[in-house]
Design a protein that fits this description.
With 649 residues, the chain is an alpha/beta fold. It folds into four domains: 205 residues, UDP-n-acetylglucosamine1-carboxyvinyl-transferase, Chain (Alpha-beta prism); 218 residues, Alpha-beta prism (UDP-n-acetylglucosamine1-carboxyvinyl-transferase, Chain), CATH 3.65.10; 130 residues, P-loop containing nucleotide triphosphate hydrolases (Rossmann fold, 3-Layer(aba) Sandwich); 88 residues, P-loop containing nucleotide triphosphate hydrolases (Rossmann fold, 3-Layer(aba) Sandwich). The protein has 21 helices and 35 strands. The strands form ten sheets. It has a five-stranded parallel sheet with strand order 29-33-28-34-35. A four-stranded mixed sheet has the order 3-16-18-17. α1 runs parallel beside α2.
C-alpha cells in the first residue's frame, strides 16, 4: 500500500487492546535465549522488529516454538549460542542490533557479522563498540567508522573491572552492555559518562534482568554493578505487557476527540506497568486532558475548555514524546519539547522530519539540536505526509486527521512495531459524513448535490469542475493536455473552491470560464489520463471535512469515497438529459439542436462507461434514483429523506 487517506475526524471513542511491548518483547526473547531452562513468553509483539530478533536467534541455533495462542516457547542456550559463526541481518531494529552486538562480542570464540538496512548503517554505534573493546571485544567496522555493519571476532575476553560508556547518545548502548555482561561470569561495573538519556528504557532492562535471575546494583544513573557468577535462569512463564509507546497514540486520540461520556480506553498498561512511557499520560494531563489510570488500563477524553500548550523536558518519555508534537496542533499556544536529541539518531532524524511534516499542516515549527517548538495554526490544512520509513512518524501524524484530511505515505512502515495500527485507529474514530452522488452527464447530480450540501450545511465538491479547472490551469501555464506527467503536476497543485454555484481557481472566480466549449473538451481529454486522476484523488478527498461533504461526479462512490455511508446514482434517459441540457444552454443565451446535444451525450455516456480507469457505473450499495419525471426540488427532498433515514439507522 503506497498511502492511506484519512478524512477529517469528528469524534473518537471506544476501547483498544494494545499489542505487546516491543522493548520488553525483544529483551525477553534475548534473555530467554541466554537463560538456563525453557521459557514460555505470553503476548509477545509480532512485528518487523521482533521478527528480526527471532530470525537472528534461530540462526544462532536457539530453539523457538510458536504456540497456538501467539506465544513463544524458547529453549535457553545457557549462556552460549550453539552456532559460533553467523551473518545476521537486523533490518532497522535498534534494540536487537545493539543488544546482540554486545552479547556476541562477549561470546568467546565467536565470529559474527551484523548488518541492517541503509538507515541502520547511519545510526551511531561507536560508543558501544568502544566500551566492548575495553573488555577485549575484537570489533571491525565494515563500512564507516562508528557505524554498522560490524564484524565481531572474540578470542579472549578481559572480564571484570570497570567499563565506561557515554550515556547521551542512546540508552541502548548501556542496555546492550548490561544484558551481555553476566555472560562473562565476572564482577563488572559500568560507569556512564555524561547524562544518561532515555532512563526509563534502562529501568526496563534492569527489571527484566532481575526477572531472569540477575540483579544489577546501581548508584543513581551513573554506575551499574553486575555481580560475579551471575547467570540467567528462566522464570518459567513471562508475560509481556502492552506497549506503552503505542498507548500514546490512543490516549492522545481521546484527549483530542473523545468526551467524558464516551472516552477512549486503552487496555494493556496502567499504573502497574514497568514502562516509563506510561508517564505520557501525565504530559496529556498537564495539557488539560482528563486521564484516569487503573492497574492495567487508562482512559482519556478531551477537556471542555480545550488543550493547552506546554513546555516539557522529555527525557523520561523519549519515544512517546513524539505524539505530543502532533497533539500540539490541537492546543492553545506553543508547545516546546526539550531534551530530545536522541530523536536525531532513530529510524530517521525525527526532529527534522517532524518539523517538516508539521509545517505542511500549517504549524510554525522551530527546531534545535535537542528541542522542537510547535505553534499550531488556526486550523490545520490538508497535507500529504511523508513518513521516512519511520513507524512512529506514521502513527503520530495520523492524529492530524482531527484537524484536516491527510494522506499518510508508506503506512505499512507501522509493521515495525504495530502492524494493524490503522485498522485499530479506524475502529475508534468517526469521520465527517459524506454523501456520494454519481450519475451520467446532465442527470441533475450537480444541482442536487449543491442544494443538499446547502441544506445540511456541508461542504460541496463538484468533481467534474476539478477536471475543468485542471484543463484551465494547464492552458494558462502552457502545458499540453496530452502531457500526462506535466498534467499530473498541474492537478496536484490545484487550489479550488466551490460555493453557492460558483467556482474559484487560485483565488479568482472562473465559474463561466470553465464552461466554455474549449475547456469542456480539454476536461474530457484530461479526465482520460490515469496520472491526472491519481493526482486529483487526494485533492478531492481533501474536501472531506467537518461538518460533512456532498460530492458529485462519476466515480464518487466507486473510487473517491468508497466508504461513503450514503451513495446515490442519479440517472435519466439520454433524451430527457439532452432536453435538460438544451434548456440550460438557452438560459445562458446559447443555442444548440436537440439532436446534436443528444449525440454528444450518447457519445459521452459511451466513453464514461467504457473507460478503463474509474468507469461510470452504479455501485452495488448505491441507491438508484430515476430523475426523468422528477424536478430538482423533488429529487433534493428524496436525497435528504434517504440521508435522514441513514442517520437514524
Amino acid at each position: 500500500m503506497d498511502f492511506i487517506d484519512l478524512p477529517q475526524m469528528i469524534a473518537a471513542a471506544g476501547t483498544v487492546r494494545l499489542p505487546g511491548s516491543k522493548s520488553i518483547s525483544n529483551r525477553a526473547l534475548l534473555l530467554a535465549a541466554l537463560a538456563e531452562g525453557e521459557t514460555e513468553i505470553r503476548n509477545p509483539l509480532h512485528s518487523d522488529d521482533t521478527a528480526r530478533m527471532l530470525e537472528a536467534l534461530r540462526i544462532l541455533g536457539v530453539q523457538i516454538t510458536s504456540l497456538a495462542d501467539g506465544g513463544l516457547r524458547v529453549q535457553g542456550a545457557n549462556g552460549r549460542f550453539p552456532r559460533q559463526r553467523a551473518e545476521l541481518f537486523l533490518g532497522n531494529a535498534g534494540t536487537a542490533f545493539r543488544s546482540l552486538a554486545a552479547t556476541l562480542a562477549l561470546t568467546a570464540g565467536g565470529d559474527y557479522v551484523l548488518k541492517g538496512v541503509p538507515r541502520m548503517h547511519e545510526r551511531p554505534i561507536g560508543d558501544l563498540v568502544d566500551a566492548l573493546r575495553q573488555l577485549g571485544g575484537e570489533i571491525d567496522y565494515l563500512g564507516n567508522p562508528g557505524f554498522p555493519p560490524l564484524r565481531l571476532r572474540t578470542t579472549k575476553i578481559r572480564p571484570g573491572g570497570v567499563v565506561r560508556v557515554r550515556g547521551n547518545v542512546s540508552s541502548q548502548f548501556l542496555t546492550g552492555l548490561l544484558l551481555a555482561l553476566p555472560l562473562t561470569g565476572a564482577a563488572t561495573t559500568v560507569e556512564v559518562e555524561g547524562e544518561l538519556i532515555s532512563r526509563p528504557y534502562v529501568r526496563i532492562t534492569l527489571d527484566l534482568m532481575a526477572r531472569f535471575g540477575v540483579t544489577a546494583a546501581r548508584q543513581g544513573w551513573q554506575s551499574f554493578h553486575i555481580p560475579a557468577r551471575a547467570r540467567y535462569r528462566t522464570p518459567g512463564v513471562f508475560h509481556v505487557e502492552g506497549d506503552a509507546s503505542s498507548a500514546s497514540y490512543f490516549l492522545a486520540l481521546g484527549a483530542i476527540g473523545a468526551t467524558a461520556a464516551a472516552p477512549v480506553r486503552v487496555e494493556g498498561v496502567g499504573h502497574a506497568s514497568i514502562q516509563g512511557d506510561t508517564r505520557f499520560a501525565d504530559a496529556l494531563a498537564e495539557m488539560g486532558a482528563a486521564i484516569e489510570t487503573e492497574e492495567h488500563a487508562m482512559r482519556a477524553h478531551a477537556p471542555a475548555s480545550g488543550l493547552n500548550g506546554i513546555a516539557l523536558d522529555c527525557n523520561h518519555i523519549p519515544d512517546a514524546a513524539m505524539t505530543l508534537a502532533t497533539t500540539a496542533l490541537f492546543a492553545r499556544g506553543k508547545t516546546t519539547l526539550s531534551n530530545i536529541a536522541s530523536w536525531r539518531v532513530k529510524e530517521t532524524d525525527r526532529i527534522a522530519a517532524m518539523a517538516r511534516e508539521l509545517g505542511k499542516l500549517g504549524a510554525r515549527v522551530e527546531e534545535g539540536a535537542d528541542f522542537l517548538s510547535i505553534l499550531p495554526p488556526d486550523a490545520p490544512r490538508p497535507a500529504i505526509i511523508d513518513t521516512y520509513d519511520d513507524h512512529r512518524m506514521a502513527m503520530c501524524l495520523a492524529l492530524a486527521a482531527f484537524g484536516a484530511p491527510v494522506r499518510i505515505n508508506n503506512p505499512e512502515c507501522t509493521a515495525k512495531t504495530f502492524p494493524d495500527f490503522f485498522p485499530r485507529f479506524r475502529e475508534l474514530v468517526t469521520p465527517a459524513p459524506v454523501i456520494a452522488i454519481d450519475g451520467p452527464t446532465a442527470s441533475g447530480k450537480g444541482t442536487v448535490a449543491a442544494r443538499v450540501a446547502a441544506t445540511l450545511g456541508f461542504h460541496y465538491l463538484d468533481s467534474g469542475a476539478l477536471y475543468r479547472l485542471t484543463a484551465l490551469a494547464a492552458r494558462e501555464a502552457g502545458v499540453d493536455w496530452t502531457d500526462a506527467d506535466a498534467m499530473a503536476g498541474v492537478a496536484a497543485s490545484l487550489e479550488a473552491r466551490f460555493e453557492e454555484g460558483r467556482v474559484w481557481l487560485n483565488g479568482r472566480e472562473v465559474t463561466e470560464t470553465i464552461r466554455s466549449g474549449e475547456i469542456s473538451a480539454g476536461a474530457s481529454k484530461v479526465a482520460a489520463l490515469p496520472a491526472v486522476r491519481a493526482a486529483l484523488l487526494f485533492r478531492q478527498r481533501a474536501f472531506h471535512r467537518s461538518p460533512g461533504l456532498v460530492g458529485d461526479g462519476r466515480d464518487m462512490g466507486s473510487v473517491v469515497f468508497p466508504d461513503a455511508p450514503l451513495k446515490i446514482f442519479l440517472t435519466a434517459s439520454a433524451e430527457i438529459r439532452a432536453e435538460r441540457r438544451r434548456r440550460q444552454l438557452a438560459e445562458r443565451g446559447e443555442t444548440a439542436s436537440h439532436a446534436d446535444i443528444l449525440a454528444d451525450i450518447t457519445a459521452r455516456d459511451t466513453r464514461d462507461t467504457n473507460r478503463p480507469v474509474a468507469p461510470l457505473r452504479q455501485e452495488k450499495d448505491a441507491l438508484l434514483l430515476e430523475t426523468g419525471h422528477l424536478g430538482i426540488e423533488e429529487t433534493t427532498r428524496k436525497v435528504l429523506a434517504w440521508w435522514s433515514r441513514e442517520q437514524t439507522a
